[in-house]
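Weekly sync, protein design subgroup
Attendees: M.S., D.O., the rotation student, P.L. (late)

Item 1: inverse folding check
M.S. brought a backbone from last month's batch and wanted to see whether the design step gives back something sensible before we order anything. D.O. pointed out we never logged the input encoding, so this time it goes straight into the notes. Structure tokens as presented (96 positions):
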């Protein structure tokens, strides 16, 4: 089963946001998790399998986010549409 994994910066662990099968809920969970982690929208593509925000998650302290297997081994990066949906959710949960 393919899952969405997020690690918000260097001090975080990889966190399972849900399965690709439950795509809408999984992307919603990602927005909520990132808002609770202090990410500031919009997110933009950065390093391989990563994004940066408008705050502390930039440079080498970026947010790892990718679709992977049960052990958090990467399978694929986010699509532009998936990143856009996470940005909408992040903005909503951030109250911006």
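Designed sequence read out in the meeting:
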């Amino acid at each position: 089963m393919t899952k969405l994994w997020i690690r918000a910066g260097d001090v975080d662990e990889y966190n399972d946001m849900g399965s690709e099968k439950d795509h809408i809920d999984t992307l919603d969970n990602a927005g909520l998790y990132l808002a609770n982690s202090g990410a500031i929208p919009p997110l933009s593509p950065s390093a391989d399998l990563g994004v940066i925000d408008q705050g502390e998650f930039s440079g080498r302290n970026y947010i790892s986010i990718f679709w992977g297997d049960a052990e958090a081994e990467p399978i694929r990066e986010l699509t532009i549409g998936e990143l856009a949906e996470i940005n909408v959710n992040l903005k909503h949960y951030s109250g911006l």
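Discussion: The longest strand covers residues 3-8. The chain has a mean pLDDT of 95.
Action: P.L. to compare against the previous round before Friday.
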